TrEMBL record:
Name of the protein: Histidine kinase
Highest taxon above the source species: Bacteria
Organism, as annotated: Leeuwenhoekiella palythoae
Pfam family, one: His_kinase
Gene3D superfamilies: Histidine kinase-like ATPase, C-terminal domain
Domain (Signal transduction histidine kinase internal region) ranges: 156-233
Sample GO molecular function, one term: phosphorelay sensor kinase activity
TM region(s), chain numbering: 9-28, 40-60, 72-89, 114-133
GO cellular component, one term: membrane
Assigned keywords, A-Z: Kinase, Membrane, Transferase, Transmembrane, Transmembrane helix
Amino acid sequence: MHFTRNKRILILLHLMVWAALFFTPYFLAGGQVELSPVAMNTWVPLGLYAVIFYLNYLYLINAFLFKKKNTVFILINLVLIGLLAFLNYELKEMYLEHILAKNKTIERPPHEGLFIYLNSITFVVPLVFALAFKTIEKWKKDETRTQEAEKIKLESELQYLRYQLQPHFFFNSLNNIYSLVDIAPDQAKETIHSLSKLMRYLLYETATEYVPLQKEIDFLKTYIELMKLRFSSNVIVNYSFPTVSGDVRIAPLLIITLIENAFKHGISSTELSRIDFKISVEEETIKFVSVNNYYPKDATDQSGSGIGLLNLDKRLQLIYGNDHKLKIDVQNDLFISKLNIPVR
């Protein structure tokens, strides 16, 4: 429907332009000019220009020029321009002979050969216009096709990354439950219930490009509480998350990667560990900060696949481009992650 409407508008524009070209000379003369000279000097050449324009616009450019058959395209147009210029000249000659026969006092214009040559050059103008219009149309179509291909590629990559994240997240959560089965069976049952809510969110509510920030915050709270059950009192976890309106939206499952990373690298089995998370919404920007003790893994520790931060960086680039800011730094044995993304 959209394509048909655009095509009708284009046809209407063409008709309006040609109508203006055909009738402007007559109207400029205030309608006082005889129709015969107007037809001979304006309408006949314009009609021949239209033949050149539309033969190229509708067929020749696509059939030859855009298929790299440049020599054939040039030869056809040289022959076409030559024939139409000759036809225009012959028609004017017939008209001039008719005028001379009627009025013996009118003489032939001087430098007739030069006039014919210059008149022939004007037949190149519609060819140039046809080339310009067709090239612009092709560029727009190619641009639209490229954008559609990029969009499909973007959606495919995001879907792949989302599928990659979900098993990774599920695997970590099952480890948490496994650690509770023997020492706290009741808590393990509650944790399974919490995990079911998390997985429901993952499976059914994160398929869209953006989700309400409040839903994402509720998901993060549940996950953090689930993680806290796994650790002893030597691990202190604090979070400060606001209550926000449903108008504030965010791409799902971005912040969870940084939270998982904080738990993975910020917990020691022998020392006191502290992790702090904070989310705020300031001036159309969602800000997340996590600060935790830094206990780097040694070469023998195979926990974690390392895909988390790489996955996050890819998704941020695909979704937000240069509109986001991710900074990860280690200062005084503290691992600090800062993420700023625009409100959607």
